[in-house]
Each structure stands twice: as C-alpha cells, then as structure tokens.
Amino acid sequence: MSLGPYASFIVTSYLAAAIVVAILIGWIMIDYRSQTERLRELDKSGVTRRSGRSATELR
Asked: Where are the transmembrane segments (predicted)?
C-alpha cells in the first residue's frame, strides 16, 4: 500500500491522534480513581448525597 508523497504527514497525524487518545484514557482512569476515593472518604465521614432524598422531603 503506497500513501504517496504525503505518507509522513499521514503517519504522523495518526500517531499524534493515537497519543492524544492514550493520554485522555489515562487521564480519565486517574480521575476516576481520584473521584471514587473522594466519595469513599465522604461516605466514611457521614456525608450523604442530596439526590438520596425524595421529592417530598424537599418541600
């Protein structure tokens, strides 16, 4: 398969896109772990979620 005179541009573009996607996936994984740890800490300290209340309790 020949990519012609623009082969280096095409390959570089695909590599850059793959690197960006890999960085985003890593960032999301790290943030997910951080958020779940924060939620565990809040749960241990007794903080409850507002969404846990029913609509009748809000009035």
From this structure: 6-30
Alpha-carbon distance of 3 to 37, in angstroms, equals 48
Tell me the helices (H) and strands (E) count for the chain, helix number first: 1, 0
Could you tell me if 26 and 32 are in contact, meaning their C-beta atoms sit under 8 angstroms apart?
Answer: no
Whole-model pTM? 0.65
Residue 2 CA to residue 10 CA, distance in Å, equals 11
**Contact in structure between 10 and 3 (CB atoms under 8 Å):** yes
Contacts of range 43-46, beta carbons closer than 8 Å, 24 or more positions apart: none
Residue 47 carries which side chain, given as an amino acid letter? V
3 CB contacts (<8 Å, ≥6 apart)? 10, 11
